[in-house]
Amino acid sequence: MGLLSGLRSMLGSENRTFHYRCLACDTAFESPNPVMAEVTCPECRATRIRSIAAPEA
Ligand SMILES: [Zn+2]
Q1: pLDDT tens digits, residue range 5-40?
Q2: Any idea where the domains of the chain sit in the sequence?
Q3: Ligand 1 mean position, distance from CA 31 (Å)
Q4: What would the CATH number be for the domain defined by 16-57?
Q5: H/E element holding 10?
Q6: Which of 29, 30, 44, 53 measures 20 to 30 Å from 16, CA to CA?
Q7: Cβ 53 vs Cβ 19: under 8 Å
Q8: How many Å lie between the centroid of ligand 1 and the Cα of residue 9?
Q9: Interval between CA 15 and ligand 1 midpoint (Å)
């Protein structure tokens, strides 16, 4: 039962963040916005970014 409730809390989290990396300045950052086309780099405002896997830990 503990595992099931743990999964549910993960899936239901409103505070999920998505991890991106800027292709222009190579800055890695997080955004709550899952739509990559709407996300801009916080360092250089570039729109050419790619999504990266969230760090484990
Ligand atoms: Zn950048």
Answers
A1: 666 555 555 678 999 999 999 999 999 999 999 999
A2: 16-57
A3: 14
A4: 2.20.28
A5: helix 2-11
A6: 44
A7: yes
A8: 33
A9: 24
